[in-house]
Design goal:
DNA-binding, homodimer, mainly alpha, 197 residues, 9 helices
Amino acid sequence: MARIKTEKNISRKDVIVTKAAILFREKGFKAASMRDLAEAVGVEAASLYNHIKSKTELLHELCFSVANRFLHKIDEIEAEPINSIEKVEKLLRFHINEMINHYEEVYVSDREWKHLADPYLSNFQNQRRIYRKRFAAIIENGIRNKEIKKIDAPTAVLIMLHAISGIESWHRSTQKISAEALEENMITILVGGLINK
Amino acid sequence: MARIKTEKNISRKDVIVTKAAILFREKGFKAASMRDLAEAVGVEAASLYNHIKSKTELLHELCFSVANRFLHKIDEIEAEPINSIEKVEKLLRFHINEMINHYEEVYVSDREWKHLADPYLSNFQNQRRIYRKRFAAIIENGIRNKEIKKIDAPTAVLIMLHAISGIESWHRSTQKISAEALEENMITILVGGLINK
DNA sequence: ATTCGTTGCTAACACGTGTTAGTTGTTTTA
DNA sequence: TAAAACAACTAACACGTGTTAGCAACGAAT
């Protein structure tokens, strides 16, 4: 009987969730089967249920752990005594780094949350909506201060968040530029598009 | 027996493909069942097979019809005697309008192509790769002419294409700005981020 | 060494899936 | 109006799905 290997401070459930992220990213939530996941973990499908409640629970865990990281970060940034452009830049850099370093989870949270079931679904959508409003509020502040061009703030948010999710393509491309170069390029283009002359 | 209603120049197959796009966008390709589709069309599931070969065929049709539209457009734009920034702007405006006016199809082609089966899959990925290279080449030209900032062209392409796919959120938002305003805002930010001073 | 909780296994169920066969009804054509 | 083509139906199949029940093996603690 081959047990799931664990290291210090990493529960078997964590192992499963991590593998699930990889699989969900690769095939999509619906197309990834529990038998696929079991194989990736090195165990029979039924054995997974000693550690998790359901397939959907895996999606909850992934979606909300990602969402919480972003919420904490925006809390932090809002409180800092810096100007709007700096806030936007900091938030963008955080998004970029999350997408680079926690690719699978962030991607899954971004693309597969549709398959959450209520009440988690409404909950997640709510958090998302609120997060974007707070992001937009930072931009609107910058517009009032004339730091930022007169643009529609929600549209700007939408552009930036989706642009960053494009890092997916970077991960899969064969001729990658370095992560640092990627970050700087993205900041140049995105922040460059906001600044008022 | 309730037949599928058709108008002039619209085959029953077209009706099915169009409804499929809506459904695939809403639920994802895997999660949308042929019985769902049948209900949307107003017919029994088995009846669909008088008009189509398989569920996957629907995905082919959608993905490649979208891909072809973009390929034609870039052919056209490459041939025009205008500068690089103008070419980028034209291409972006086309993408934006496609995403606004053919939302369902474009979205499905963008997000669900993973579920294509070979040889269609490799084919589609190839077309996509080539398209992006051609887009990047336009930008690289602009950099050489000093019209465009010194940035990594593939990264710029990736940002723009993904930013545009964010129009998805616009479609679903309750307080939409007008389509025209959306287009202008996107162009302002995205092209603004490219221009060299 | 025995006990006990944990973690794995096999087997199976109930259900939803895409799709086919065969038939009946409806249009279009001759 | 009869024949041919089309498009709908019912029934069913084979298969993959998430999940549960019941049991066996393992590791840690007494």
